[in-house]
Fold each of these.
Amino acid sequence: MGSHRFSTSDTYPNWIYDGSDIPDPFGYGERAVQFLRALRHPKSRLPGGAFDLTPWQERIVRRIYGPCHENGRRIVRNVAMLLPRGNRKTSLGAALGLLHTMGPEAVPGGEAIFAASDRKQARIAYDESIGIVRAIPHVEKRLRLIDSKNRLTVSKTAAFLEAISADAGTQHGRTPLFALVDELHAWKKRDLWDVVRTGLTKVPGSLLMVISTAGRGQENVAYDFYDYARKVARGEVDDPGTLPILFETPREADWTDENVWYAANPGLEDGFPDIEGLRQMAREAKERPGEREAFRQLHLNVWLDHSSDPFVDMLVYDQGAFPVEIDDLEEYPCWLGVDLSSNNDLTAIVAAWQQSDGYIVHPWFFCPEDNLRGRADRDGVPYPEWSEAGHITATPGNVVDYRVVEDQIRELCARFNVQEVAFDPHMARNIMNNLQEDGFPAVEMRQGWVTMAPAVKELERAILGRRLIHGGHPVLRWNFENIVVHVDAAGNKAFHKGKSKDRIDGAVACAMAVGRAAAGESTMSIYDSDTFEEEMGWF
């Protein structure tokens, strides 16, 4: 282990450096290593252009292919590798693709695939493989290369390697023996991911290898996959078939500390990536916050919030994910914030209850029922799953049915001690008039600086003070994660979308509800209840 290296987290792969024994009862790990060492690479500086298999990479290869069941079947079926840019993860993946195409792991007619989010990304590992085989002239003669199809075929065995992408239409019918999934954090849709995963289960002894840098946000297929790997690494899940190789940096680590760089980048000890290049990037990042976040994500593998300029650190927000039992709050003063959407956005109702100097909040979301899958692909979040789980109410048609929203507000007013129902009047005139005519406490709360800045400030105070309990509702969390903050000359803050497709409706409604609760005259809190339970508080 190098002098710069140290373990940075409870998921760090220390086994790569500790010299521990890696079982290899059938010699499959050794033969994989020998195959890789017999390869050539056009950019190699080793004698004869030999493939540069570094000691830490060799340990990874042995750990994948060595351990086997008594029947000789490989134990590892899924490899979750997180490596920063510049650590030659694509070269290693390309070489392993060849191991399964023309090496000892190949089978006649076997299918190996390199899968990525788009055609250009899918070609990277494929071109790397082509470069390797072309560096060995007598090997290239035994292959058929069909560049237009991104396919390499071994003439004698009909085993082939092909690059495919998520933007190339349907890929159903795939039965890969080996699948290299590249930069999963960049995948906007999960269709191809599902095809790859289901295809692998059709073939005995198949292997999925996912290699990626860290991503942003939690509502995506990459986060789900790597979070499962983290649980395996920590021993929370017993799954010997999944091998986590997670070179991650904790978010609180000092990103300017070169010891942290060496821990996250195992190749630095071997000269890649270039240390001087990283130092130059770090110097620039000190003065430019956008560059700093990119440096942390891409070169230190810090999994970041979705927004590049988040309202609050989502790790702090997540500390409010205590269970919320709203049935216990029916008698206490309640304020509702309502953000009515345009056709494509979410519509949100958020209820807020005061508790000491903080708040309990609970949301209700609505979206059009038609084409939930298309909306999921567009926004990159699992609308169908959220709907099925009850986190979103899907209203009939292709636009939000405001009648369903109005009925929900009336139901909440009947159930809870609602003091006010706050609306931005821009799209709410009809609902407001209906409610006011029937005696409901509907009020205007315009979305300008004067009204929203105090509400946003109060919400921020509650979150940072660990005084906002939200129950961990996944849609509300996603909305908070999307916020980009605009600040005026006086230091007032306002919410904006990071991108046009981002949804922040629940966060806006939450700020409205909290703001009206803060301005409310009632001083009754849940702590006044004779039935107060510890789970409703923070301590």
Note: Residues 314-536 form a domain with the Nucleotidyltransferase; domain 5 fold (CATH 3.30.420.240).
Amino acid sequence: MQRGNSVFSRLEVKKYILKKNLKRDLPASIVVFLVALPLCLGIALASGAPLFAGLITGVIGGIVVASISGSQLSVSGPAAGLTAIVLGAITTLGNYETFLLAVVLAGVIQLILGILKGGMIGNYFPSSVIEGMLAAIGLTLILKQLPHALGVDSDFFGDESFVQGDNENTFSAISNAFSHFGVAAIVISALSIAVLIIWPKFKKLSVIPAPLLVVVLGVALALAFSGTEYALAQSHMVEIPVVNGIGEFFSLFTLPDFSQITNSKVWVVAGTIAVVASLETLLSIEAIDKIDPIKRVSPTNRELVAQGAGNIVSGLVGGLPMTSVIVRSSANVNSGGRTKMSAIFHGTWLLLSLLFIPGLINMIPLACLAAILLVTGYKLTRIALFKHMYHKGWDQFIPFVITIVAVLLTDLLKGVAIGMLFSIFYLLRTNMRNPFFYKVQEEGDKKHIRIKLAEEVSFLNKASIQVLLTNIPKETNVIIDGTNSRYIDPDVLETIFNYKHNAYTKGIIVSLENIQQQYIVPKLNNKAIEEINN
């Protein structure tokens, strides 16, 4: 009886937690759905793929990937960072069906990477670079959405690259938008931003998500402006394919061409997609964990498995390659999402909107959706973040700023790579400065120097140790103490032993204390390794 009561109690607790989180996840899923909808369409358009491909990728990213993933807040879908690769791959491979085969194979590769614990790479992204990437995404959202908020939609919705496909760049596009703005779009975006800021302050009314209210307001204002000289053109509205019935819906699916399995170009494209998509996903997962209010840690290997499964399914039904996407995920966090149910619901809303209300969805102005992303971008680029990173010291602040500038002037992966280089430079400098400490004692005319090595002495410490030993004056007694050292790199050991052997020529007497001839890298037990990998 007690056992039964215990099980009943656990079930009740689970139901309570689910119900409690549902109050947050359901409204958040609507916000993510509204953000994801134009992004899916814009990325598909820029990739040279059917619009349906972008939407079905969002559906799969929401339902399939989120169900398998261990991340509670990540939202997956077609990524802006893959548009150039997809566009080039479709052209190179000759047709869309062959490209879909590459997407399926990319998913298989990701699946294998996850099984082989390739997600551990995510543990090596420096915090300063991840923080810089988040701030850069926020600034990118603000800069890229300004033209849409002003009613100029020449660039695809969701573009993140500095150089745009319409022969503009981020800054020239803003300048051009101020010269060709639309009054209706400005009114809609300005009122939308006001609602997004003011509405959440009324707690009793916040049951209705502010972004949902913004969309209703945007549709109403667009209808009010229709028939006037300020009316919005259809190009300034969301445009999803209108599906008349289940039969027509299934006719939109495209199958991959498996006869091209031996085509080497397919495998090159698949490998490229797998590597780029995996890196973007791992970066996104690290970033989302940082802004998670509960500070949960997502299992990176499981995420690669989930992404692999998602890309396999996407390729089989005619979708695009996908990643975990920072913009959607951060919108999820900022809207109060708590569990993966938010991402799953968002995928469901995408599917239902395509099947049942495409006409209504096509009445939504892009200006009000741009307003949602502008506010999301502001929350990611808060001034407090810059102050926080500044107070952490120059070795953190400089890579942080460099990452921001590099992402803004290139794209996500290139910018992060540049930020990583600067972070590695500061890491090397820090390691070179902290391999040991030493104490000088004088007895008459004879100096005694004790050099105490650190707990871990790596190859990176070799140069600084060599400099110290070379500058020790003649006629000195030197004690090199390895008592605290759990590991000393073989190259450093060779440097120490060679110095001991040759020091007598300068009248230097070298004594070694607790320094072994060889050190074995400490191994983690299986349980610890499993915890790190998962």
Note: The chain has two domains: 22-419, 434-513.
Amino acid sequence: MKKGDHLFLVDGSGFIFRAFHAIPPLTRKSDGLPVNAVSGFCNMLWKLLTDARDTSVGVTPTHFAVIFDYSSKTFRNALYDQYKANRTAPPEELVPQFGLIRHATRAFNLPCIEMEGFEADDLIATYARLAEEAGGDVTIVSSDKDLMQLVTSCVSMYDSMKDKQIGIAEVIEKWGVPPEKMVDLQALTGDSTDNVPGIPGIGPKTAAQLLADYGDLDTLLSRAGEIKQAKRRENIVGNAELARLSRELVRLKNDVPVPMALEELHLEPQDGPKLIAFLKAMEFTTLTRRVAAATDTDAEAVEAASVPVEWGAAAHGPDLDKGELSGQGGAGGTPANAASGESAEDAAAVFAAKPPSPVETALTPERLADERANAFGAAKIDCEAYLTLRDLPALEAFIAAARDSGVVAFDTETNSLDAMRADLVGFSLAYADLAADPSGLAIRAAYVPLLHKQGLGDLLGGGMVEGQIPVGQALGALKTLLEDETVLKVAQNLKYDYLVMKRHGVTLRGFDDTMLMSYVTDAGAGNHGMDVLSERWLNHQPIAYKDVAGSGKSMVTFDHVPIDRATAYAAEDADVTLRLWFVLKARLAAKRLNTVYERLERPLVPVLADMEARGISIDRQILSRLSGELAQKAAAFEHEIYALAGESFNIGSPKQLGDILFGRMGLPGASKTRTGQWSTSAQVLEDLAAAGHELPRKIVDWRQLTKLKSTYTDALPSFVHPETHRVHTSFAMAATTTGRLSSSEPNLQNIPIRTAEGRKIRTAFIATPGHKLISADYSQIELRVLAHVAEIPQLRQAFADGIDIHAMTASEMFGVPVDGMPSEIRRRAKAINFGIIYGISAFGLANQLSIERSEAGDYIKRYFERFPGIRDYMEATKAFARENGYVETIFGRRAHYPEIRSSNPSMRAFNERAAINAPIQGSAADIIRRAMVRMEPALVEAGLEARVRMLLQVHDELIFEVEDEDVTRAIPVITSIMEDAALPALNLRVPLKVEARAAQNWDEAH
């Protein structure tokens, strides 16, 4: 290699996991072999080579190599045995693709390099040094921050997914330090994905500032005593050796005895027949055609190559937890057919061309899940064996046994469904006696009564039931268990119990939630309530609440339930919850959904509980005034409605309204409900209004006003807490199929933002004196996600350039210049943009835009012609859903649509539209969940945790209450966390944009 030459070094392992998670499941038609990662890898490599050789597009390489990780064990494990110990085994469907990808690299006529004992990054570092010393330039094709320490004036990086060059300036812009200080920065921050410890509490921004102040890590550690912040000083002084160890773990080795010399990396022309033979073996017809055309090869004359399938090559797979991605398919254990230490060739000799038979298979996650479900489904539950713990020694003994088991189910019993107002009446515990039965079937459960009353309470001559542990003593014993992170606590709908206990001075730590486990594995496939799950997985019907507390007018609160009946009910809840945990924990691993649960669901529980506890202030006077205004407007509508109808009637009565519209007036589109009445649903009225009928339009408007009045302006004051004087909504985590949160008591998700009345209601949500509300809202996040998943170049470019996306769409569709575009044209494009996400029909679009259905159909047709990738995405998504019964978000969350194969056309069409929308809406929901989980640590790092409080989440928006003087500091922190929420799991192909404003009330801030 000589001066002027240019070496491309491709991070092959990075390409693998990007390809695997970017491409939906894909199998070879002839035998069902999974090949999605191979397909993505080949397409990415082909595009890179094509673009690189086009001098008008990019740099022309003279030398080229693809570098892979050989295995997860390297010299770093000798330095620190916990290095990457958090890694899970790769998904079984990826295992056979590792070897195929190496065959693909050779088919491209490219060096395929890996070396036992070293990571791919070390080989890249060595080749980069050798090339630079020889006078050449280097481009490292990767976006991995670990490689940024290699960037120099002659060595740059290229993120092929974002088409972005990364040089010295970009590293400084991203991390606040030049490349030569990246090792020190990572030594301070650590890396959770690689299990590099770093110094606790030091994030990238703090690390960058420390290095700016002290120059380098050694100087910082030697002068740590000078740091003014006491907690930071103690952390650095106490963890200095961890920082030095971390530096050795993250520093790349650039003197590896590489297996191929630089000159052997010379880029050779593509061998058309050789590459096509491989592609035909994989059955990649589209790429075969492209390669044939580019290499002037007659593809028909080339026979498919014989490519062995290395089913045991897991030991040579990439580090799939790198960048958080592996958990989307991580099994939580080693796949049964994973090779252990042998070479790919040895493994191929054993498993060549076919997977091992079931007889050869060890205990897989799937088999474990089946065995657990069968065992617990057949076991009997004995409610007579439950204990009532009435004194402190008995409770302490039970807690000690539960702690020894390592896993304990916990449930609270209260006198209210409102966690912010409920009194703790009692609690139940359950643990598995593993000494009696290692399978976990011998479960001991008990109930601890605290505040049960005799009769109907003090007013009727009752009082406290004797033989109950004083609340303070019971909580003192329970606190040591619930706050012990070494003991796993299991609950059903844990957020409620978490908040109740938090109000009583106990913070649950180390927990699992069976409701969320079920939600992750089966969203859309059924209810996730405990009774339903018990019948589904345990074949057991639990005691119903009404059977112990009564129903209707005779229902009593739980504090009036006799203790013997309370024990049977409450202890059974804990028992059932623990049994469900055994079953559902195994199902999470079997379904490869651990990461969705661990990163999107479980950590959100305390975040939402804290938000619910904080609440938000409202201005009752504003609501009272608005209530009067809405009443006057509704009354005016009523007079107009009566005049149009020719008589007075009860507008709120569907029967009377139907009789007038369809019986007397004979309007079209009449249909009847199951009860035989005319249907007057919102859709029916909207259709009639769109057809030009004025009376239905007035009724729609009247309904909207009266609903706003009853739901918000009249009802919100009743939700003000008597002690906090704030409104505390409750967030439901498992209520939607797509992962979106919902709220209730009161529902703050459905306040309309596009109507004047809705905006006025938002003015009643206010900041307390000395504070401001900050509204941070994702801009067009679902369209951005669509541009990412559907590969729409025009949309991606427009978002990258910050162009008005609706104006751009209108320009593309209608040939109208963006400058001076009529607002009506832009409005139509906006309606289509958002409508497409929800699978809008020509009929629906015609109603929305008040145009003929044929014209709306032409718009949709033209839209798909201009953006064919969207139709491809929609058709591919429907096909995937029909085959699998579910779709996935970009982070691996599954939304099930079992009715997508329904013989009922309308039901099938509804499920198809929902399946198309779910990956878009669900991915947006996942992104904001990730932002919420990361927000508190970011605020702590910025020193704002006591001055900035996250209060509400409403779809794509987060609302905070911030002290006046901290607004300017808070907004950049909030915005940064939200815009980078997808990282490092995923580099979106379009940037996320967040608009954040501060004001005295919610409407002004939005």
Note: Residues 617-725 form a domain with the Taq DNA Polymerase; Chain T, domain 4 fold (CATH 1.20.1060.10).
